[in-house]
Amino acid sequence: MIRILHVTAATEKQLLRARQFRDTEAERVAAKIIVDIRKRGDTALFAWTKKLDGLDLTAKSIYLPCRGAALLYPEPRRVRPSLPGRIESTSARVSPAFLRAVKHAAKNVRAVAEKQLPRPWSLAVEPGVTIRQSVSAIETIGCYIPGGRHALVSTLIMTVVPAQVAGAKNIVVVCPHPNAELIAAANFLGIEKIAQIGGAQSVAALAYGTRSIPRVEKIFGPGNRYVTAAKQLVSSDCAIDLPAGPTEAVVLTNDAKANAKWIASDLLAQAEHAPDAGSFFVTTSKALAQKVRAAVEEQLARLPKTNPAYISMRQTGAILVASSASDACDFVNRFAPEHLSLPGDDEATLQKSCNAAGTIFVGPYTAQPLGDYASGSNHVLPTAGWARRRGGLSAADFVKCVTVQQINRTGFSRLADDVQLLARAEGLQAHSNAIEVRR
Fold first, then answer.
1. Using CA atoms, how far apart are residues 374 and 319, in angstroms rounded to an integer?
2. 385 φψ region: left (φ > 0), alpha (ψ -120 to 50), beta (else)
3. How many CB atoms are located within 10 Å of the residue 370 CB?
4. Which contiguous run of DSSP H or E holds residue 410?
5. Pick from 15, 100, 113, 379: most CB atoms within 10 A?
6. Which of 177, 181, 248, 339 is catalytic?
7. Cα 323 from chain centroid?
8. What is the pLDDT of residue 93?
9. How far apart, in whole angstroms, are the C-alpha atoms of residue 188 and residue 400?
10. Are 82 and 64 in contact (CB under 8 A)?
């Protein structure tokens, strides 16, 4: 049964410390793989893929083509994922309803990404001094698509669509086990092929390049502990989107009349991502806390026994009862969750007080899975407290904003004296000289 705890300094310390765990074992394994990939390239990549994912790849079979793969058949028939190295005639077929869902989600993600994209601007700072901002896409990016129990089509949409909006010329997609749905979605998005690689070995290949995998300039997409460790290890040589650890969700309301069943459903929706996912309900209402716990147990019992939520809700998740609304909001801001839901009638007040979350779901009908798939907001979000520093993935992460400075003789004359004074104060004679020689 999910725990009910009181929000105290000790409880908060315990929950925050659990997220600060450094996975040295994952770092050790990832570092070993990275070194090997850098040294032996494709040979190491294929060897690690065979050892860890059971795929016997070659330079000819590493990619699955996606173009023309989205054939249709009547619902509700389902098919097995495609076999390594080829797409069977039936394996790439998906239902019309699935493709409609992909198109709907992609349309909304594209609309939001277009709004997020930074714009060029120009400013006359003072007479003779003009500063412009130019915006250009990162040319080659890598999209890591998790493929554990199921290949995550939603992550494909959330990474590829903003890259396309930004104008990225080369998008390299990798997934350890691409299935029919992923291939069909990739085809719809205009992706020509998917590399059948995953884990730390795929991150290393993207970061440093091999004969088969082109080197990219930035890697996007969440993954398991080894993928996360590998991304952090290569980040000094290849940019990454953001650290993405275990999924987190907080539902916050002090409205005793809030719908306990709906709250429980959102907690379980994130808890089923992995055994170490953290789902927390924060409230000042002891009565609502009890109702939510009962609803969690009732809905959990209807899930398959293999669902990771059985483990995560009991080992990681908790219901937290705060003594005041202020204490509840303070805890949430310090925890800075990946997902924050405000489903009660007090959402307007809470929203003013809560300023640290990857994304915020406001109102009872704003179910968290809507944001995971199709609302348009990106589901690649900061975890482990990073929401205190940044928000979720956006089109801005796929571009470079470069300032362009243009100063004429008038502008030079207006700035020169003050610049020389400042340069001399810092003991930088060559800086001062660069001004002096132009007088």
1. 28
2. left
3. 14
4. helix 409-425
5. 379
6. 339
7. 33
8. 78
9. 27
10. yes
Walk along the chain (439 residues) in steps of 10 and give the mean pLDDT of each run.
92 85 89 98 97 92 80 40 39 82 98 97 98 97 89 96 97 95 95 96 98 97 92 96 87 95 96 91 96 96 93 93 95 95 93 94 96 95 91 96 97 97 97 95
Q: What are phi and psi of 279, to 5 degrees?
A: -115, 125
Is 150 known to be catalytic?
no
Catalytic residue among 181, 248, 338, 347, which? Answer: 338
Burial of 20 (0-12, 13-18, 19+ CB in 10 A): exposed
Class of domain 41-122+136-240: alpha beta
Displacement of CA 345 from its chain's centroid (Å): 29
- Please say whether the dihedral angle defined by the alpha carbons of residues 298, 304, 308 and 314, taken in this order, is positive or negative: positive
| 139: Cα separation from own chain's centroid | 20
Q: Where are the domains of the chain?
A: 3-21+246-391, 41-122+136-240, 408-436
Token pair for 14: 């315990």
- Strands 278-283 and 318-321 come out as parallel
Annotation says 431 is catalytic: no
Residue type, 3: R
Say whether domain 3-21+246-391 belongs to CATH 2.30.40.10: no
φ, ψ of residue 438 in degrees (nearest 5)? -95, -5
Q: How far apart are alpha carbons 386 and 397 in whole angstroms? A: 16
> Which has the closest alpha carbon to 415: 126, 164, 176, 217?
126
Query: Given this model, what pLDDT does residue 69 score?
Result: 56
d(CA 177, CA 146): 8
- What's the helix, strand, coil split of the chain in %, to 5? 45, 20, 40
Burial per residue of 401-435, b for 16 or more beta-carbon CB atoms within 10 angstroms, e otherwise: eeeeeebeeebeeebeeeebeebeeeeeeeebeeb
pLDDT of 244: 77
